[in-house]
Q: What sequence folds into this?
């Protein structure tokens, strides 16, 4: 099997996870804005979207860990940093 540094699947899984984490960050910022505006409907709506994003994050994390298992190793923080730089 290819190394994690030049594996298309590693890059894809990491890209997916980064997109989801960015989405969570955007939602958190939007929710803070809604809280400050005392817009309770929007706070609740964003809360639901965040729950869905957390589920997606968990699925993406599991897929990444499973794939790392296929490489025969545990995912280390340094791997994520190298994959981000490579993508
Ligand atoms: Zn891989």
A:
């Amino acid at each position: 099997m290819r190394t994690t540094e030049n594996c298309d699947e590693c890059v894809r899984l990491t890209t997916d996870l980064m997109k989801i984490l960015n989405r969570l960050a955007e939602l958190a910022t939007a929710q803070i804005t809604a809280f400050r505006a005392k817009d309770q409907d929007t706070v609740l709506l964003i809360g639901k979207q965040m729950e869905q994003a957390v589920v997606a994050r968990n699925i993406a994390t599991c897929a990444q860990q499973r794939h790392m298992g296929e490489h025969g190793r545990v995912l280390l923080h340094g791997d994520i940093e190298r994959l981000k730089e490579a993508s």
Observations:
- The CA atoms of residues 29 and 73 lie 35 Å apart.
- Residues 40-71 form the longest helix (32 residues).
